Amino acid sequence: MRRSATIPLMLLALATYTVPASAQIFTNVPDEGLSGAKEFGLFPTGRILSTEYSVEDGRAAFGGTVTAAAHLKRFLAVQGGLGVAYSRQEFTYYRPPLVTFTPTLSLILQRSTAADFQPYALAGVGYEFVRYTRPRCDCEQSKSLGIGHVGGGFRRMIGARRALRAEVSSQIGKGGPAFSGFAGVSFFVGGPADLIRKSRPRPPGRVRTEPPMRMPPRTGQPIAVPQRTTTSAPRPTPAAPPPAPVAPSPNAGAVLLTIDGTQVDFSKPAWRNEAETMLDGLVVDLTSDAGEGIKLSIEAHTDNIGSNAANITLGLDRARAVREYLLSQGVTAERIRISSAGEDSPIASNTTALGRQQNRRIVIRREN
After folding, report:
1. Domains of the chain
2. Are 70 and 80 in contact (CB under 8 A)?
3. Residue-wise pLDDT tens digits, 36-56
4. Which residue has the higher pLDDT, 160 or 45?
5. Which 3 state secondary structure label does DSSP give 112?
6. Residue 201 pLDDT
7. Are residues 171 and 130 in contact, defined by beta-carbon separation less than 8 angstroms?
8. Which terminus of the chain is more exposed, N or C, with fewer CB under 10 A?
9. Distance in angstroms (rounded) separating the CA atoms of residues 353 and 355
């Protein structure tokens, strides 16, 4: 029994030890974690039966476990579970098959669900119901007993709504402890608004049209025109003076629009519906007669989570997403320049979730 129970515990310890320190980087989960989310899972399960039903050897059974959990806080969750195990081994007092049903209710104390890797411990209560056949009467009978339920496990987020999960637990009753372990994938429903992601901007709602050709701006200098003469040898035409340099607009560098951190998806180059409404208003200004000559610079900023190179790339992806949307709405490419500052120009402290949110932004400026 001890050897069988030790194997899943060793696997759990090995998985915990081998997760790198970078697992502390919040890449898949929003800063407020999974508070308010519901977690569901269906897992294949191995079980070591209590000595109440079997001898020391041959106590293995196999089945499945269904779990449903409510994440109350980043560090706290309540979970209900139902384990079913089946065995056809020969037991001392019972004839196979033997089927166990184990409903449990547990309180989970866990690492913050804002992290990618989340070890946890659980404790609770439950019942164990067993159906079996007695050799003496060749009849089916059942037995139930109250149990205490304790254990531990971990989650490894593989997306905003999925996690790899493993758990080892012990059910302690009057007949001696039983052990179970499972591993698989769990899924999340509901929770923070940050779990709702947009993979890309919506398709354009109107056909892209090129603006009409514009005449070059007047320089204010007269252009020399050859004069007709009655003589046989025409006079040489004096060269026109070079055009005067165009003075830059006093509005150059002015911020036209800022998409702040509440509208920028964490770790993704997408934005939310409210930001698209703001961009549509900018498109109206840029495609009007007064705004056709305006050129733009789109500069994206990130927080300090992750490497600087990765943040530069993420910023460029965000700036490109904005440019592609403006192009789809009729703004020409030669009017748009994009860049990424990465994490180098913060406007708030990166030590808090609010500060990191403020630093994730996209700034659109006028260039001329």
Report:
1. 2-193 (2.40.160.20), 255-366 (3.30.1330.60)
2. no
3. 789 999 999 888 777 665 544
4. 45
5. coil
6. 43
7. no
8. C
9. 5
